Amino acid sequence: MADRTSIEWSDMTWNPIAGCTRVSEGCRHCYAERLAARGLPGFEGLARWVDWPDGTRAPRWTGVVLIREHLMDLPLRKKRPRRIFVNSMSDLFHDAVPDEVIDRIFAVMALAPRHTFQILTKRPERMRDYLSTRAGDWMLRWPEAIPAGKWYVSRHEGMSRLGANGPVAAALYDAQPITYPLPNVWMGTSVENQRSANERRTHIEAVAAAGWNTFASYEPALGYVAWEGWEFLKWLISGGESGPRARPTHPAWHRVARDFSAAHGIPYLFKQWGEWGKAKGAHSGTPGKYAIASAGPHSEFWPQSVIEVDFYPRQINLFGGATVRERIGKRAAGRLLDGVEHNGMPGG
C-alpha cells in the first residue's frame, strides 16, 4: 500500500492483487503495465517489453496475476480515515482473481468503515455478477475471509485485536453493525469512448440499482460520450491520457461531461489534460508537434505541423479556427477546464 499517491481523487492505494491483461482501447498505454515492465518492486515478471519492427518498444502484461497475501489486511492497520483506491495496479474483477479472494477484500473493507474504498474496473459485468450472486455470503464466512491471526475491529476505545481461534464472526458483529451494501465502498467503471460507455453502462447501472454508490472514470477520454442514461451516477471523473505515448483529448468531450454532471447534481472532478495542452499557435514549432481537432482534406492548411488523429471529430471551422493541442507535458498542461479547477467529490 502506498500511503501517498499523486492520484487527485485518492489519498492512498492498496494493491492486494497485482497484474492484469488488456481489455479495451483505454488499456493501450496503461501506466500500471509500464511500471511493471520497468521492474517496479513487487511487480517483477508481471509485464515485459515487446520490440516492434519500427525499432520501438512497448510494455505488455504477461497474463500473470498475483495475490499479495502480505498486503491483504493493511487497511485495517491504518487508523486515520483515508480514501483508498483498491488495486490501482490491477483489476479486482479480473477473471484470474478467485471469488474467494474478492470475498476477503470485501471483508476487510467491511471491517474498516472509517475508510472510503474506491474500486474501479473495466469489467463491470463481473462486478455485477459477483455483487448479485455472492457478495452477501462473505458476511457469513468472515473467519475464512479475513487473513488468519489479523483480526481488527473498530471500537469506541480504539483498535482491538481478536484471537484467530476465538468466536470471530460473533465478536465482529458485536463490535460494529455491518450494513449491506457497504456505504464506504464505491463501485466504479472506466469509460474511454462511446463504445465502452455503451458496453458498460447497463452493468454499473444494475450495481447502482442494488444500492451501491457508483461512479465513472472517463479517463483516458479518447472519444465523445453522450452521457444520457448515466443519471444514476453519484460521481463522475474525466481526464486526458498521460505517459510517453499519450494521445490528446478534446476539450469539448470534457465540457459535455462537466455540463451533464452539473445538470444532474453529480459531483464532477476534472483530473488532468495529460501530456497535451493548449497550443500557442498552429503555425510555429517543430513539424509533427501538434494534434488538431480536425483531420481529412483540410490538413494541408497546417502542413507538417499537424498530426491527424482519427479519434477526433472530423470537422473544421475555417473562420473560427480549430482546437489545437501541443504536447507540453502533464504539469504544464495542468487541470483547468475553461479556467476552472473542478474538484467535485461525493459528500464534499
User: Which strand order do you get reading across the main beta sheet?
Assistant: 1-6-7-10-11-12-13
Please state the CA-atom Rg, rounded to the nearest Å. 22 Å
Low-confidence region ranges: 148-175, 281-321
Specify the structural class: alpha/beta
Secondary structure tally: strands: 19
Tell me the β content. 15-25%
The CA-CA distance between the termini, in Å, is: 25 Å
In sequence order, what are the helices and strands, one letter per element? EEHEEEEHEHHEEHEHEEHEEEEEHEE
Indicate how many domains the architecture comprises: 2
Shape: globular
How much is the average pLDDT? 79
| Helix coverage percent | 10-25%
Please tally the helical runs, counting DSSP H or I stretches of 4 or more residues: 8
Largest sheet: 7 strands, parallel
Structure notes:
The protein is of the alpha/beta class and 348 residues long. It has two domains: 259 residues, no CATH class; 52 residues, no CATH class. Helix content is 21%, strand content 20%. The strands form six sheets. Strands 1-6-7-10-11-12-13 form a seven-stranded parallel β-sheet. The chain has a four-stranded mixed β-sheet with strand order 14-17-15-16. A two-stranded antiparallel ribbon has the order 2-5. α3 packs parallel to α6. The radius of gyration is 22 Å and the shape is globular. The two termini are 25 Å apart. About 20% of the residues have low confidence.
Write the layout of secondary structure elements.
Layout: E1 12-14, E2 17-18, H1 31-37, E3 47-51, E4 57-61, E5 66-67, E6 83-86, H2 99-110, E7 116-121, H3 124-133, H4 142-145, E8 151-155, E9 158-162, H5 168-175, E10 185-190, H6 194-209, E11 213-218, E12 236-238, H7 251-263, E13 268-270, E14 276-278, E15 290-292, E16 306-307, E17 324-327, H8 330-333, E18 336-337, E19 340-341
Parallel strand pairs: 1-6, 6-7, 7-10, 10-11, 11-12, 12-13, 15-16
Antiparallel strand pairs: 2-5, 3-4, 8-9, 14-17, 15-17, 18-19
Helix pairs in contact: 3-6
